[in-house]
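Dissemination and training. As part of the outreach component of the grant, students in the summer workshop were shown how a complex can be specified as a set of sequence lines and then modelled as a single object. The example used during the hands-on session is reproduced here so that future cohorts can follow it. Participants entered these lines:
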Amino acid sequence: MLCALQGVYDPTVVALTSAFFIGFAGIPGLFISKPGFGQLLATVITIAASLSGFAAALVLLFSQNTTTFAVNWGLPFGPCEISIDPLSAFFLIPVYLVAASGSLFALGYWPAREHPSTEKSLTFFYGILAASMAVLLTARNGVFFLMFWEVMAISAYFLVVTEQSREDVRKAGTVYLIATHTGSAALYALFSLLSAESGSLTFPVAGSLLPYTPAATAILLTAFVGFGAKAGIMPLHTWLPQAHANAPSHVSAIMSGVMLKMGLYGIFRTLTFFHDPPIIWGVVLTVAGILSALFGILFALAQKDLKRLLACSSIENIGIITTSLGVAMLGISSNNRTLAYLGMAGALLHILNHSFFKPLLFFGSGVIIHATGSRDMNLMGGLAKNMPRAALLFLIGSVSICGIPPLNGFVSEFLIYSGFFSQIQASTLVYLVLLAPLLALVGGMALIAFTKLYSSIFLGTPRSYFSTAVHEPGFTMLLPMAFFALLCVLIGLLPYQALRFVNPAINVFMPGTAIPFNPDGYGDVLGKISLTGLSLVALAAVVTLFWRWRMQRAGSTTGSTWGCGYQRGSSRMQYGATSFSELPVSVFNGIVRQDIKRPVLSGLFPGKSLCSDAPTETFLERVIAPLFSLAGVSFAFLRRLQHGRMHVYMIYIFATLFILMLWAH
Amino acid sequence: MTNSIIHIFLAILMPPLLIGVIGKTKALFAGRTGAPFLQPYYDIIRLLHKGSVFSSTTTWIFRAGPIVALASTSIAALLIPFGAHPSPISFQGDMILYAYLFALGRFFTMAAALDTGSSFEGMGSAREAAYSCLAEPTLFFALITLSRLSGSYSLSPMLINISFGIWLNAGAALLMLVGGMFIVLLAENCRIPFDDPNTHLELTMIHEVMVLDHSGPALGIIHYAASLKLFVLGAFFVHIALPYATGNPYLDWGLFIISMLELAVVIGVVESVMARLRLIRVPQLLVAATILAAFSTLLVIR
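and obtained this result:
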């Protein structure tokens, strides 16, 4: 089949073969009746294949020449080209890393023994999802790309509805399916437009299309809608929180850590087709990005379901990445290489960072749910005592995602801020710097959201009985978390090294303009950041030693928390997740509410009463939901075509094909 | 090199003096003699010799709170220039690190407060979260204005650049910046009218209530870190409000010390003549500060 196959050891072939093995890792398990062995086999295959795929992706990232394979597949869409350039290789890194660690995590989180009915399909579709993402990154033909895009979308659907006996899971699955197919419809339009513009369904050569035609605008718009819906850019994000919250945690990890990035990859790839992009593209991306970041983190702030909080924070992070990409496009449009470099490096490094700390946090959420059986943060508390290791790893993830030094989130946000400030002396581009206070506000809100998340789960006293029976998770669950936590610390302390992985991908993006490795001394700047980060750690160690010395001299005792004289304090008097964010959320009441329903107390001895709260999104409820119900009513007549009789459906397909063929002649 | 040593020396030794000066000023206003200027030093040393009580609810996060707060503020002290002298560590974009180091300290202080499981400390922590988030954009607007005026984006050149000449050219913008940053300085350091550092049990407390359960050396570290934070943020403010420079390095160090003491007196006067705000007014004042700073930004980048 591969006609241009030159050598079996070609890294492109290795990467594809690895994807093939990951994709079919779940199949043996379908035929093994003894529970557990199939899952173990799948994990071993996935990890081995991911390691070789990861190595191949690294080789391809740093290699200068890209091999292209043309597959003659006998379909009428032109030759199917496959190749992995550094941009694809860069996006392949998280695919393999998250796939392998998620598969290991599943052994402890979703063991076949405890979930005999769902484990097989979960393992199977997990492999298919990971493999389809790896393959679509290699596709250079629109139809081939769309095929695997659909495989990815559908396998993710089956993963989301793993616990299909629950109604909210089914509902989340349906919403996801509608959203993903709306996005796919835009992508069909995109690739049709592209083939009309370039003459074939093979992807156009980088920088070959003219940007100032109406067709180019249409291409960009369809790409933004189609890929943006997958990435979760506002206002195309509505499917995201519920789908992430209801999927098993390692699935949420790969969806948030990797699948959302496929949408971003699509936007990146589409942008490479054009040369000299107009300023307006950068403006649109920047505005959409910063709005996503602001509203995403605001929604995260109001949540009480820990996985919904993490999912909303994904919207925020995707928004930050899109902002940075927009900044880079502005840099390219205005021929400003420093701005283009900083924007692009910030965007790509944040993609890498988010695909490390978000899976870490979703794995952590899996550990918490596994231990407590709940997702409601208001019921938790005090878990750090029972699971100190998981608590430490989760803390590293929480600090990283807030963009706080000395961890990795800070490095990418630093590059993005530097992009904003680099144009401080310019005449028009100076307005870019007004994004800095907005990003600071996003950072401030992220700090509240993640203090709330971490503290209400791990600190204080247990707010519910189950928290006391919790124990440390096994190594299959801790190891994947520790792996990503280590990556977060390493990138945070050695940011200069992290840039090496980003630079080749930037080179693809701007063909013809060789980007210096160290524009305007940014290598030295990152060296200084690394220096301050290390001295921060050292200083903390010195203070700790000093304090321990003082404590040994003066002694210490243990007592109960001071209750200001009140002797009967209970764990329910603590500040919970909802009460912690009540004040900041109330400032933004028009956009999102926590909707706390307080009971009316009367009499000297009021009886038992209930207090409840539910986060509500005004935009979703006032705009999106009415629009959808309007669409539902106005298209009700189409229901007559949809009656569940299979043979009539096949006639539809046949008739459509026939009409299309007539039309083509 | 000498300047770096003086810088570190001042950053280590001088911060508690500011608290002493503020206390003395307030005492004078109240017609009392007041505690000696060096009282904060005695307090910190006394606390370092005391034993500690730890709540059985707490974990290592509770102990990490003061340590991280002190370590992150100390690094911030190395990034900010004192007077006309550049800071020991300076690079392009260091102001972003400066702003985010406070966020690191805040994360751990809030987490440590919530670790005790006390409703008081949870309350303080929630308020700190909300108010500091609202104060964040003000600092960034100030950084933009200063960065635009000086044409650089590193703290040392952008702050040392401010002189009476710049005040003559961009006086309106700088005046609004002084207003906005003074509000943020008071809010971030939990001074009146946002918070009262003297009372521990009022329900309107923010910072003091978060550290209710810390005792002994930990409390000493917290008090010291708080005074260092006042010193570091104060140094930033003094650059804008009192941009004296003589050109003589030793005179400049003296001028810097005098300016910081002047600032402490001003804070003391504000604390003496004002009452604490009602809690619901606090966000309004913070948003007003942001708008002041945003105005100054618009004036310089138009």
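The first helix of chain B runs from residue 2 to 13. Students were then asked to discuss how this feature might be tested experimentally.
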